Amino acid sequence: MRRWLPWAALAAVVVAALAVGTFDRGGGPRSDEDRASSLAEGFRCPTCRGQSVADSDAPAAVAIRRQIERQIDDGRSDGEIRDYILSRYPRSEQVPPRSGLAGLVWALPVAALVVAVCALAVAFRRWRVVGSRGGPSADDRVLVERARRGS
């Protein structure tokens, strides 16, 4: 039981970190300008490489920013505006969605990290068990000697 206590503590820390990382902090932008800027940051410029709509001066990015501002003036929610922009410019979202098949982008690295940590734990445990035996046994030495002689 005592040997599993550190592992249980590590698992609790990992679960807590994941929970805090996925917690929605709320609060959101206060003004319409902050909302528009935040929404524009969430979309890629359709004509630029590596720039958000908020950072680009390309005509397409300017048009998207104007659409966002009009939607805000019409009283639409952030979700409605996001859906509207994505319906007109598919694949323009900066951050992949966290659900569905695209959610694998978020889940696979975490799963790979967990598998790697578990594999290291198993390997270290095996090395410790082998090292605690104090070297090869008499049977092992006999087998090695036979293999050297070729018999």
What can be said about this structure in brief?
The chain is built from 6 helices and no strands. The chain is mostly helical and 151 residues long. Helix 2 packs across helix 3.
Assembly level: single chain
CATH domain class name of the largest domain: Mainly Alpha
Major sheet: size, sense and barrel closure? Answer: none
Rg, Å, rounded: 28 Å
User: What does the overall shape look like?
Assistant: elongated
Estimate the helix proportion, in percent.
55-70%
Poorly predicted tracts of residues: none
Summed up, the domain count is 2
Structural descriptors:
151 residues; mainly alpha; Helicase, Ruva Protein, domain 3; 2 domains; 63% helix
Could you give the topology of this structure?
Layout: H1 5-22, H2 32-41, H3 59-73, H4 78-88, H5 104-132, H6 138-149
Helix pairs in contact: 2-3
